[in-house]
Amino acid sequence: MNVNATLPVRVREERGDHTLVLLHGRGADEHDLFGLFDVLDPERRLRGITVGGPLFLPPGGRHWYVVPRVGFPDPQTFADSYAALQHTLDEELGVDWATTVVGGFSQGTVMSYALGLGAGRPAAAGILALSGFIPTVDGWSADVTDRPNLPVLIAHGTHDPVISVEFGRRARRLLDDGGARVEYHETPTSHAIDPGVVPEMRRWLADLTA
Fold first, then answer.
1. Is 177 exposed, middle or buried (0-12, 13-18, 19+ CB in 10 A)?
2. Domains of the chain with CATH codes
3. Is the distance from CB of 180 to CB of 170 less than 8 angstroms?
4. Distance CA 137, CA 6 (A)
5. Residues 51, 108 contacting (CB under 8 angstroms)
6. In the chain, is it the N or the C terminus that has fewer CB atoms within a 10 Å radius of its CB?
7. Global pTM exceeds 0.85
8. Does the pLDDT of residue 69 top 60, yes or no?
9. pLDDT of residue 6
10. How many whole angstroms separate alpha carbon 32 and alpha carbon 185?
C-alpha cells in the first residue's frame, strides 16, 4: 500500500475554529459516521471530517487493519494505515491538532487513540473513544504522560461481544494514570453507539470547543 496516498474523505465545512474528525469501524466507510456531525454539533460550529480506511477485507467494506486477535492489530496493516491517515490529515488537509478532536467507533477508536496518543504526535484537543481500545502493536506506543489534562470521553457497552468492556476499562486506567481528564460512560449495550450517551457526547464536545 502507498502510505503517502490520500485516503477518501468527506468534509462538512465549519463556522468556528475547531475540527471534529470521525473514523469508522470495521466494514464501514467514510459515509458511515458523517451524519453524527449534525447530531453532535447541531449548530454546525465545527468543521467535520470523516476518512475511509485503505483496506478492503471480508466480509466487505473498508477496514483499518487486519485483526489476528482483538486488542492486537496486525503490525504491518496497522502501520500502513496509520501512516496513510497521518498523511491525509496532516499533510493533505493541514489539520491543526491543537483545535481538533479525533474520535471514532471500534477500529476507528483504535486509530483515534493512535493519532491522539502516538509517541511523537502533536496532542489533539480531545479524543472521543467509542467501543474501542488503545492498541498493543509492534512499532507504535502510547505517550500519555506528555499529554496532561488531555480530555477523553470513553463510552463502552457492558454487553459488547466484539470488543469486551474490559478494553474500555483498561484505557480509562491508563489515561487516568497518565493525567488525562477522562469522562467514562459504561452502559448495558452491545457493540454499538448507545443513543443514551449521545447527549453527554454533545455536551462534552460543546464544552471542549466553546
1. exposed
2. 9-208 (3.40.50.1820)
3. no
4. 24
5. no
6. C
7. yes
8. yes
9. 77
10. 22
